[in-house]
Design a protein that fits this description.
Elements (H helix, E strand, L loop, with lengths): L3 H9 L6 E8 L7 E5 L5 E5 L16 E9 L4 E6 L9 H8 L3 H4 L19
Parallel strand pairs: 3-5
Antiparallel strand pairs: 1-2, 1-4, 2-3, 4-5
Length: 126
Amino acid sequence: MITDAEWERIRGGLRFGQVLRGTVVKVPRPGAIGIFVDIGLGVGGFVDVLLLPEQAERWPAEGTVTDFEVWWAFDRQQLRLKPSDPQYLRKNFADFFADIRPSWPADIGRPLPRPHRLHRNRTHLR
């Protein structure tokens, strides 16, 4: 695991739609969750089931090396990815992003949003 400062530095250099080469390292429940990808940045990559083909047998298998695009990043140290290769992308991706994330075409090339700072002591949330 990397430090929060290193995560901020990595995030600062990434853009939506940026292509990263990655290796599929885990497919925990084919057809149900998504896939975990090593992108060589010290943080994990993850492709959500909603971006992958409906047929799990069309998903990239563990060990597959292919290109992924930066789709999103949350505060935790993980990048959400989108397969670049259409064979690993849901069939109706154009309709999907038009409904779920209509800003996607305009987001491409924009920097990732800065992470929110959360207090380490969350007792105020109780």
